[in-house]
Design goal:
The protein is an alpha+beta fold. It is built from three helices and four strands; from the N terminus they run H-H-H-E-E-E-E. The protein has a single domain, classed as Beta-lactamase Inhibitory Protein, Chain:B, domain 1 (2-Layer Sandwich), CATH 3.30.1450.
């Protein structure tokens, strides 16, 4: 019976968010809810992203997707904050969520990381 109750409540959570409730910030609940929201709803609840990169078609210039970055938004299971949360959009919907412990330097370029050399 608990499983049915939990499933029923989970099914209502996306509807509730669309009705104006807050988007949860812990990683698992965030992923479950953010994919039910459009860009306008996300901005309404989270504010403008720290960084936006539009991915355009080389020939037409049409925006095919967008990448949004937020900083110190989401928490891991242990309660620590992720430094960057990336939302990847196709059209108006989130298709991928990435949590990163690396800083986004805001330059529009990937953050340089020195590779570790593993000796065997």
């Amino acid at each position: 019976m608990r499983v049915l109750t939990a499933a029923f409540l989970a099914s209502l959570s996306g509807v509730a968010m669309a009705g104006g409730d807050e988007i949860p910030l812990s990683e698992h609940e965030f992923v479950a809810h953010i994919q039910t929201a459009n860009k306008a709803q996300i901005i309404e609840h989270l504010g403008e992203p720290a960084r936006v990169v539009d991915v355009k078609d080389d020939e037409t210039g049409e925006v095919m997707g967008s990448i949004w970055h937020y900083h110190y938004l989401n928490t891991a299971v242990n309660g620590d904050y992720y430094k960057t949360t990336e939302l990847d959009f196709v059209g108006d919907q989130v298709v991928t969520v990435v949590f990163s412990t690396m800083d986004d330097d805001g330059s529009g370029e990937p953050t340089a990381v020195d590779p570790e050399i593993i000796q065997q």
